[in-house]
C-alpha cells in the first residue's frame, strides 16, 4: 500500500460489506453497493488496476433460525438468497469482478488457514466464559438467539451488538437480563470454553493504523473511543451447528479433562469468516482471469510475506461499508490482517443510513422500496444510482422519497445533463452529421474539460462519490451556459465557421461527460458513447480520453433520461401507504406460528438482510438530513460561542420559559430559553452551553432575548464542550 494519490502502481481491491443471505434487498441496502461500484469504476477511469469483489454472508444465527422455520437446511436457505443477490446486483449495473459466498470451499480453506496462522503466532487462547442457556428448551444460545440490556449504556441489546444504543460490539455473556429470541424464555448464563483472539495486544498498532487510515472521517473517529476505553479480546467461536468449523488442532483443555466443549463442537464466529471472503473472492477472480490480469497475492500479502518485489507492501484495499460495522473493519479486521502478514486497509468508506420519506425502513411493516419493485415500476437503474451516489456526502444520512427522487431526476439528470446532451447532439447531427466539426476544441472549453477531469481525480482521492457526480453536472451546466451564450443556431448562416466551432466544443463536452459520468450512469453513458460514434466501449475509457477530440460519426440522438411525472409519484406513494397499512393490520393480529413459538416481533426474529454487513436503515425517530445546503461562507456568518449560565429563573406567565443570564466572555446577556419543564432550574447555573450569539433579538413575555441556547431533541439536551473552552470561545 502506497498512500500515494490514485492511480498508483499497486493493484487495488474495492470491496462492499457482505449482504446477509436472509431476505430481500431494498434501496437502503443498495447505497453501499452502488457506492462501491461507482468508486471502483472511478478508480479504473483514472487508470488504476482494480478488482471489485464481494459475496454473500451465509453463516450465523438468523440464517439457521429462518432456515429451520422454512423447513430447509441453512445451506439451501442461504444459497437461494445468494443466487438472488447475484442476479439482482447486475440489474442495477453493480458489476462485481467476483461475487462469491462465505460457505464455498475457497473461503472455508482460507478462513481455517488464517485462524491456524493466528494460533501459530500465539494470538489465540482458550477461556472459560458465560454463555446464555435456555433451561426450558435445554439449548445453548449463540449471540443472535439472545436479547437483553446493554451493560454499557442500558439500551436494548441484541446478541453481539448494542443495536439501539451505543452500537458497541458485545462479547458472549455481556448482555444483561438475557432472553431467548427463539422461545421468549428467560435465559441464564453457564460456563463454556471458547477461543479468543487477543485483540488487546494490537492497541498500539490500531491507534497508528487509524492515524493513516483514509476514507470517511467517521471510520477513523468512531473506533478511537473504543481503543481509549481499552480493547477487549474477541471471542471467535460459537456454540452453533451452522458455520465454518474451528480448524483441526490440539484439543481444548476442557476436552482433555472430559469437559463438554471441544474444538470439534465449535464453529467460527461469523465475523471471522465474513471479511476473509474479501480475500477469497479476490483469489477466485485471479483463478478465473489469471495472475497476469490481476494478482490477488500482490494485493493481499504484505511485508515479509509479500510475494513480489514489485509490490512488497501489498495493494490498495478500500472497504465500502455501512457505518454500523465500522468497528469490525477498523479494529478486528486490521488486527487479523497484520497478525497474519496481510495487507491492511488503505481506506474505509462508511456510509450513513437511508430513511424512507423521513421514517426508517421496516421490513416487517413492508415500509421499503424493494430493489425488484423499483425495476418492476419501469425505472432505469442509473437514475437511482445517481440519487444514491450524490444525495449528500457518503457518510451522511440520506432520505429517499418519491418526491425527492422526481425532483433530482427532473432537475439535474433531465434538465441539466440530459438537456445539454440532447440539444447539442441533435443540432450537431442535423447540421453537420460527422465529427470533428472544427479542427480542435476551443481553449475555453478545453480548459473547462481539464478542470472537470481534475475535479474527478480529486473526488476519487477524497473518497467522495458525491463530488464525482457534481463534477459532471457542473460540466453539463457549463455546457448549457456555453451553448446559450453563443447561440450557434443564429451563426449557422452568417458565421458558419463560428457555429461549427461552438458545436464542436459542445460535442467535446458531451464526450467528456460520457467518460466522467460512466461510474455513476454506466448504461446511459454507453448509449451516449454510441450516439457520439466513438470506437470501443466507454467502460474502457480513462480520463485521458475525455480530453481527446471527438472523432466519431454522430448518430441521431435520443433523450437519455426520462422525466418522472407528478401523477406517477402520487400513485407510488398511494401504493406504498396501502402496503404499509396492510402490513401493520396484519401485525396487530399475531399469527398462529408466533403464538406457538413465543417469538419476539418479526423485526427481531427474521433479522432480514438488515442484520448483515451493511445495515443502512435508521430508527423511525431520527429525522433525515436536509437536502438544502449552505456554503462555508454562509456558515461563517453564524457567531457560535461557548457560554456559561450565571443564573436561571422563571418568567411570570410562561410555563416553559426561563430567563437565563449567560456569560459570553466579552459580555453577559439575557437569553430566553424553553427549558423550564425539561431541566432542574437550580442545576443550570455554572452549566456551559453553546450560544448562537448573532441571533436576532426577540421579546418573549416582556423579556428581550439576546441570543439562542442550542439543545438537541425533544428533551432539550444542552450542547456543551468536551474540554475546557471558556466563555466567549468561538465554535468553528
Automatic annotation (TrEMBL):
<feature type="binding site">
    <location>
        <position position="153"/>
    </location>
    <ligand>
        <name>Zn(2+)</name>
    </ligand>
</feature>
<dbReference type="InterPro" id="IPR014729">
    <property type="entry name" value="Rossmann-like_a/b/a_fold"/>
</dbReference>
<dbReference type="InterPro" id="IPR002547">
    <property type="entry name" value="tRNA-bd_dom"/>
</dbReference>
<dbReference type="InterPro" id="IPR023458">
    <property type="entry name" value="Met-tRNA_ligase_1"/>
</dbReference>
<dbReference type="GO" id="GO:0004825">
    <property type="term" value="F:methionine-tRNA ligase activity"/>
</dbReference>
<comment type="subunit">
    <text>Homodimer.</text>
</comment>
<feature type="short sequence motif" description="'HIGH' region">
    <location>
        <begin position="19"/>
        <end position="29"/>
    </location>
</feature>
<dbReference type="InterPro" id="IPR041872">
    <property type="entry name" value="Anticodon_Met"/>
</dbReference>
<keyword id="KW-0648">Protein biosynthesis</keyword>
<dbReference type="InterPro" id="IPR012340">
    <property type="entry name" value="NA-bd_OB-fold"/>
</dbReference>
<feature type="domain" description="TRNA-binding">
    <location>
        <begin position="634"/>
        <end position="732"/>
    </location>
</feature>
<feature type="binding site">
    <location>
        <position position="166"/>
    </location>
    <ligand>
        <name>Zn(2+)</name>
    </ligand>
</feature>
<dbReference type="GO" id="GO:0006431">
    <property type="term" value="P:methionyl-tRNA aminoacylation"/>
</dbReference>
<dbReference type="InterPro" id="IPR029038">
    <property type="entry name" value="MetRS_Zn"/>
</dbReference>
<dbReference type="Pfam" id="PF19303">
    <property type="entry name" value="Anticodon_3"/>
</dbReference>
<protein>
    <recommendedName>
        <fullName>Methionine--tRNA ligase</fullName>
        <ecNumber>6.1.1.10</ecNumber>
    </recommendedName>
</protein>
<feature type="binding site">
    <location>
        <position position="363"/>
    </location>
    <ligand>
        <name>ATP</name>
    </ligand>
</feature>
<dbReference type="GO" id="GO:0005524">
    <property type="term" value="F:ATP binding"/>
</dbReference>
<dbReference type="InterPro" id="IPR014758">
    <property type="entry name" value="Met-tRNA_synth"/>
</dbReference>
<dbReference type="Pfam" id="PF01588">
    <property type="entry name" value="tRNA_bind"/>
</dbReference>
<dbReference type="InterPro" id="IPR001412">
    <property type="entry name" value="aa-tRNA-synth_I_CS"/>
</dbReference>
<feature type="binding site">
    <location>
        <position position="150"/>
    </location>
    <ligand>
        <name>Zn(2+)</name>
    </ligand>
</feature>
<feature type="compositionally biased region" description="Acidic residues">
    <location>
        <begin position="583"/>
        <end position="625"/>
    </location>
</feature>
<keyword id="KW-0479">Metal-binding</keyword>
<keyword id="KW-0547">Nucleotide-binding</keyword>
<dbReference type="InterPro" id="IPR033911">
    <property type="entry name" value="MetRS_core"/>
</dbReference>
<dbReference type="Pfam" id="PF09334">
    <property type="entry name" value="tRNA-synt_1g"/>
</dbReference>
<comment type="function">
    <text>Is required not only for elongation of protein synthesis but also for the initiation of all mRNA translation through initiator tRNA(fMet) aminoacylation.</text>
</comment>
<keyword id="KW-0963">Cytoplasm</keyword>
<dbReference type="InterPro" id="IPR015413">
    <property type="entry name" value="Methionyl/Leucyl_tRNA_Synth"/>
</dbReference>
<keyword id="KW-0030">Aminoacyl-tRNA synthetase</keyword>
<dbReference type="GO" id="GO:0005737">
    <property type="term" value="C:cytoplasm"/>
</dbReference>
<dbReference type="InterPro" id="IPR004495">
    <property type="entry name" value="Met-tRNA-synth_bsu_C"/>
</dbReference>
<keyword id="KW-0820">tRNA-binding</keyword>
<feature type="region of interest" description="Disordered">
    <location>
        <begin position="578"/>
        <end position="627"/>
    </location>
</feature>
<dbReference type="GO" id="GO:0046872">
    <property type="term" value="F:metal ion binding"/>
</dbReference>
<dbReference type="InterPro" id="IPR009080">
    <property type="entry name" value="tRNAsynth_Ia_anticodon-bd"/>
</dbReference>
<comment type="similarity">
    <text>Belongs to the class-I aminoacyl-tRNA synthetase family. MetG type 1 subfamily.</text>
</comment>
<feature type="binding site">
    <location>
        <position position="162"/>
    </location>
    <ligand>
        <name>Zn(2+)</name>
    </ligand>
</feature>
<keyword id="KW-0694">RNA-binding</keyword>
<dbReference type="GO" id="GO:0000049">
    <property type="term" value="F:tRNA binding"/>
</dbReference>
<keyword id="KW-0067">ATP-binding</keyword>
Amino acid at each position: 500500500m502506497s498512500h500515494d494519490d490514485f492511480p498508483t502502481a499497486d493493484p487495488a481491491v474495492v470491496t462492499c460489506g457482505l449482504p446477509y443471505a436472509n431476505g430481500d434487498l431494498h434501496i437502503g441496502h443498495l447505497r453501499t453497493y452502488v457506492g462501491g461500484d461507482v468508486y471502483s469504476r472511478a478508480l479504473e477511469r483514472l487508470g488504476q488496476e482494480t478488482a471489485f469483489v464481494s459475496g454473500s454472508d451465509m453463516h450465523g444465527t438468523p440464517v439457521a433460525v429462518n432456515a429451520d422455520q422454512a423447513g430447509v437446511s441453512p445451506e439451501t436457505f442461504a444459497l437461494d438468497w445468494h443466487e438472488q443477490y447475484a442476479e439482482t446486483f447486475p440489474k442495477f449495473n453493480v458489476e462485481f469482478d467476483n461475487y462469491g459466498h462465505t460457505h464455498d470451499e475457497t473461503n472455508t480453506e482460507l478462513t481455517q488457514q488464517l485462524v491456524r496462522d493466528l494460533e501459530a503466532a500465539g494470538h489465540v487462547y482458550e477461556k472459560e466464559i458465560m454463555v446464555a442457556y435456555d433451561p426450558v428448551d435445554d439449548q445453548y444460545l449463540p449471540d443472535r438467539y439472545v436479547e437483553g440490556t446493554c451493560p454499557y449504556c442500558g439500551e436494548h441489546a441484541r446478541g453481539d451488538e448494542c443495536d439501539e444504543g451505543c452500537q458497541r460490539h458485545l462479547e458472549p455473556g455481556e448482555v444483561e437480563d438475557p432472553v431467548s429470541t427463539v422461545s421468549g424464555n428467560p435465559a441464564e448464563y453457564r460456563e463454556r470454553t471458547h477461543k479468543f483472539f487477543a485483540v488487546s495486544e494490537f492497541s498500539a498498532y490500531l491507534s497508528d493504523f487509524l492515524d493513516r487510515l483514509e476514507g470517511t472521517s467517521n471510520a477513523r473517529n468512531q473506533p478511537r473511543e473504543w481503543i481509549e476505553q481499552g480493547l477487549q479480546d474477541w471471542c471467535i467461536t460459537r456454540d452453533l451447528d451452522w458455520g465454518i468449523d474451528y480448524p483441526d488442532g490440539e484439543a481444548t483443555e476442557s476436552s482433555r479433562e472430559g469437559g463438554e466443549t471441544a474444538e470439534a463442537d465449535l464453529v467460527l464466529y461469523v465475523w471471522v469468516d465474513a471479511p476473509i471472503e474479501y480475500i477469497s473472492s479476490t483469489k477466485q477472480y485471479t483463478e478465473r482471469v489469471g495472475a497476469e490480469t490481476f494478482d490477488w497475492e500482490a494485493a493481499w500479502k504484505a511485508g515479509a510475506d509479500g510475494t513480489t518485489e514489485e509490490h512488497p507492501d501489498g495493494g490498495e484495499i478500500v472497504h465500502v461499508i455501512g457505518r454500523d460495522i465500522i468497528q469490525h473493519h477498523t479494529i478486528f479486521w486490521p488486527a487479523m490482517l497484520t497478525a497474519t502478514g496481510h495487507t491492511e486497509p488503505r481506506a474505509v468508506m462508511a456510509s450513513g443510513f437511508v430513511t424512507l420519506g423521513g421514517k426508517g425502513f421496516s421490513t416487517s411493516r413492508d415500509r421499503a422500496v424493494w430493489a425488484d419493485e423499483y425495476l418492476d415500476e419501469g425505472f432505469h437503474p442509473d437514475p437511482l444510482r445517481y440519487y444514491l451516489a450524490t444525495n449528500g456526502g457518503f457518510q451522511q444520512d440520506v432520505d429517499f422519497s418519491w418526491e425527492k427522487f422526481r425532483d433530482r431526476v427532473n432537475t439535474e439528470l433531465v434538465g441539466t445533463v440530459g438537456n445539454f446532451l440532447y440539444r447539442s447532439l441533435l443540432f450537431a447531427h442535423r447540421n453537420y452529421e460527422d465529427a470533428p466539426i472544427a479542427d480542435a476544441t476551443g481553449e475555453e472549453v478545453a480548459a473547462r474539460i481539464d478542470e472537470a477531469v481534475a475535479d474527478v481525480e480529486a473526488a476519487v482521492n477524497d473518497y467522495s462519490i458525491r463530488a464525482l457526480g457534481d463534477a459532471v453536472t457542473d460540466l453539463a451546466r457549463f455546457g448549457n451556459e456555453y451553448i446559450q451564450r453563443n447561440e450557434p443556431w443564429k451563426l449557422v448562416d452568417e458565421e458558419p465557421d463560428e457555429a461549427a466551432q461552438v458545436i464542436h466544443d459542445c460535442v467535446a463536452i458531451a464526450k467528456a461527460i460520457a467518460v466522467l459520468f460512466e461510474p455513476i450512469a454506466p448504461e446511459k453513458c454507453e448509449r451516449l458513447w454510441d450516439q457520439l460514434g466513438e470506437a470501443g466501449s466507454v467502460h474502457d475509457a480513462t480520463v485521458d480520453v475525455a480530453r481527446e477530440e471527438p472523432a466519431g460519426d454522430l448518430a441521431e440522438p435520443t433523450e437519455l433520461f426520462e422525466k418522472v411525472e407528478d401523477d406517477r409519484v402520487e400513485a407510488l406513494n398511494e401504493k406504498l401507504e396501502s402496503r404499509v397499512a396492510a402490513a401493520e393490520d396484519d401485525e396487530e393480529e399475531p399469527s398462529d406460528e408466533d403464538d406457538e413459538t413465543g417469538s419476539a416481533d418479526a423485526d427481531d426474529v427474521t433479522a432480514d438482510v438488515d442484520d448483515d454487513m451493511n445495515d443502512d436503515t435508521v430508527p423511525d425517530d431520527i429525522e433525515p438530513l436536509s437536502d438544502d445546503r449552505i456554503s462555508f461562507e454562509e456558515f461563517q456568518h453564524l457567531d457560535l460561542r461557548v457560554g456559561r449560565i450565571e443564573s436561571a429563573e422563571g418568567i411570570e406567565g410562561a410555563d416553559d420559559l426561563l430567563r437565563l443570564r449567560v456569560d459570553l466572555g466579552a459580555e453577559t446577556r439575557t437569553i430566553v430559553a424553553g427549558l423550564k419543564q425539561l431541566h432542574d432550574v437550580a442545576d443550570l447555573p455554572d452549566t456551559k452551553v453553546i450560544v448562537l450569539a448573532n441571533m436576532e433579538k426577540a421579546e418573549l413575555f416582556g423579556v428581550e432575548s439576546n441570543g439562542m441556547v442550542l439543545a438537541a431533541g425533544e428533551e432539550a439536551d444542552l450542547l456543551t464542550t468536551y474540554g475546557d473552552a471558556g466563555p466567549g470561545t468561538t465554535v468553528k
